[in-house]
Design a protein that fits this description.
By secondary structure, the protein is an alpha/beta fold. It is built from 9 helices and 9 strands. Strands 1-6-5-2-3-4 form a 6-stranded mixed β-sheet. Strands 7-8-9 form a 3-stranded parallel β-sheet, sandwiched between helices.
């Protein structure tokens, strides 16, 4: 089971794996996003035009930030700097702004890499749009480097109700966030891992697996598998060799 929505395109690598190795893959989100209303946002007394730079760690944060701006009829200044955790997230900004006319900076994939860019602009006033449940390394690294910033809570991550699943019996469970692990424990409190392999994307998800007392069998990205489908395929190949 992959804890994400089913891909909309038939060219997904997950479908390639299913066909190549004759395996069945179910897709089921373990979490859902709940918007923070503009009324709730105003209670935090954050005036968006006061901030000269924005820090984005996900596409979801970008969507909800511009949703809030639209609801409150706020126009983001053309002089605003954008700092994104990866190139793909930076390019996602094109959905809302004229990309080539803005000051946009991005890291490779880790927040500590982005910090090196942020430190080059120590006098900026940064706003960080986040989920109510977010990675603690973000404020920790900003504090450590004495960056002037404010957290803007603009959405929440909620565990999905999965009580309709009567036979929760899978060979591999695939997770992409600590919230997914939390949802697993909430929905299936009697879950015993046994031979079920657990796959985790990113170090914080891997850490959540360990903290939940579970065994991590597949981790991505890794030096030979930059994506989750690649890591899963590696595991299946290895498992097939052992079974022969």
């Amino acid at each position: 089971m992959v804890s994400q929505p089913e891909p909309e395109t038939p060219k997904s690598p997950y479908f390639d794996i299913a066909e190549k190795y004759n395996v069945k893959i179910d897709f089921r989100p373990f979490i859902r996003i709940e918007a923070i209303s503009s009324k709730e946002f105003r209670q935090d007394r954050i005036n968006i035009p006061d901030y000269t730079s924005l820090i984005f760690t996900s596409r979801t944060a970008i969507d909800h930030f511009f949703r809030i701006c639209n609801e409150l009829k706020i126009t983001v200044l053309d002089t605003t700097r954008y700092f994104c955790i990866s190139e793909s997230i930076a390019y996602y900004l094109q959905k809302y702004i004229v990309y080539r006319k803005r000051k946009i900076f991005y890291g490779k994939s880790k927040f500590e890499e982005l910090i090196d860019l942020i430190k080059k602009f120590p006098d900026e006033n940064y706003l960080v749009p986040l989920s109510k449940i977010h990675k603690q390394e973000i404020p920790m690294l900003l504090d450590k480097n004495k960056i002037k910033y404010t957290k803007a809570i603009i959405y929440n991550t909620i565990s999905c109700d999965m009580t309709d699943i009567k036979d929760f019996n899978y060979d591999i469970l695939v997770f992409f966030s600590p919230s997914g692990i939390k949802s697993l424990k909430q929905n299936f409190p009697d879950f015993v891992q046994n031979s079920t392999a657990i796959a985790a994307f990113g170090p914080t998800t891997a850490k959540a697996v360990a903290e939940a007392g579970l065994r991590l069998d597949i981790q991505a990205p890794n030096p030979t598998a930059p994506s989750m489908p690649a890591a899963i395929e590696q595991y299946i190949k290895k498992a097939n060799k052992v079974s022969k």
